[in-house]
User: What shape does this take?
Amino acid sequence: MVDWRRRVHAIYADVRANQDPSSAHQHWREARDVLFAEHPASPIPADTRAEFEGLDYAAYDPALRFTLAVDTDVPPQRWEVATATDGLVPFELAGVLHVPGVGDLAVWWLDSYGGGVFVPIKDASGPRATYGGGRYLIDTVKGADLGGDVLGGELVVDLNFAYNPSCAYDPAWSCPLAPPANTVPVEVNAGELVRPSK
Assistant: This one.
């Protein structure tokens, strides 16, 4: 897992360094496909990895990329997620992102060793077109960070980079799924999709 995390961090570092978001998105897609197909820590079950043909994504839409201020005028709120692998995972509400055309998304702080920013999203496209439990936009503890002036209270939110949690591929994984504060009533037809059943 250490090597997997290093590689994911490196992919997002490349994304942040690329001044062309569409090109960065293409690199992200290609690099993730290699990891999922070849890495021993891939969430694709080992007995089905030989059949893996790559992840499915919507085409990049530049209108779905934002640099947003985190609205920190929020009441204290704690969210605890019970997992089979990591025990009780605690989060504290750090703020809210007001995403144009989408709605509000809570920004959570991982309230355990090391900390980290976590922004999941569950939208009306699931489970038909996207994973029904929701997807992740930002998860800094795992390297999923698109940048922004964090000292100035801003985050880059690019819905094209929404991706499935590991439990979408294998139920053996335990994942925090998007809570009501990260559920929006609109369809977000961007980012990673689910492959239609054959």
